[in-house]
Amino acid sequence: MVLIGGDILANTTIYDVAGAAKVSLATVSRVMNNPEKVAPKTRDKVLEVIKKLGYRPNAIAKGLASRKSTTIGVVISDITRAYIAQMLGGIIDIAEKYQYSIKIFATGLDVDLEDEMRTVVAEQVDGILFLNEELSKEEIELVVNKVKEAEIPTILTNVNFEGNPLPYVMIDYAKGAYEMTKKMIDKGRKNIYLFSTVRHYFTNDLKEQGYIKAMHEAGLTPQIFRTSGDVQVNTEHFRSFFENRSIDGAISVRDSIAVSFMNVAKRAGRKIPEDILVAGLQNTKYATLAMPTLTCLDSPVYDIGVCAMRLLTKYMKQEVVEESHVILPYTIVERESL
Predict the structure, then answer these.
(1) In whole angstroms, what is the distance from residue 191 CA to residue 223 CA?
(2) Mean pLDDT by 10 residues, the chain (338 residues)
(3) Interatomic CA distance for residues 73 and 151, integer angstroms
(4) Under 8 Å between Cβ of 150 and 121
(5) pTM
(6) What is the DSSP letter of 76?
(7) Residue 238 and residue 282: Cα distance in Å, rounded?
(8) 176 in Cβ contact with 281 (< 8 Å)
(9) CA–CA dist 153, 313 (Å, integer)
(10) How many CA atoms lie within 13 A of 39 on its CB side?
């Protein structure tokens, strides 16, 4: 607890210690767990603050630290998403090779991102893999600032922004969406819609940029229809879609949205692909379960997980990293819908 003037103000946290000593959270953690790695002057200052504030670290966290095991914090948006599960598969396969422990943290729409990042840092993880691509530029910057302050090696997957200092692994979503749109244009389609989400975030913004570029180059008008990733919600949106629109091509930022659209379109008497070409920009399990099967941009999600985990391992071991910004290749898998 923090004592000021003899009065109890609140339970003391590692943040209080770091703030009072004017050092990073990682430095406080090292003083408690590996004091020999901290300069004597800094160590003495931190120990003095710990004593003055009466800080007592969480017993469980302290016990975990004493085991010297390596723990990776994996921050996700929603574990039920197909691409998240695939990416986790790649991460876990490499983590098992190095005998790393994995802790998963969820940052859904109803979770305060800043609070959640405090929780991740307080768990004293050795490295962080950030899988949540459903973030705005401002939210990504918040994450960057938190992990830099804590001095924890961190890899971003599928997110980036101009001036970002953190390593990342992703594919060129703008280029992929551009090529998919060009394929439809080359097949003579002119009224091509992009189905995106109501909420703007990094990956979908890139997909929109690629689609818009291809449409403009062909002298066509970009038409973005925003809906929800929730099938019940977007199905209702699509039911009234055909009342006042002419459409002969549809590209969706999510496969699940594309499949939902195809189901509604078929019930409305439209034939896929004869009347409307349809494509997704993920290539998840929904693509092969659909009827007709869905043409997709194939993002190597498993490989992104593998690459991110290997890259994080290099940073944690302080090895030489030749390429910190990794852009993996993608393919377009053509199926029955295009």
Answers:
(1) 8
(2) 38 76 78 76 87 67 53 84 83 91 81 82 88 78 84 88 84 96 97 92 90 98 93 89 91 95 94 97 91 94 93 92 92 96
(3) 14
(4) yes
(5) 0.75
(6) E
(7) 20
(8) yes
(9) 9
(10) 4
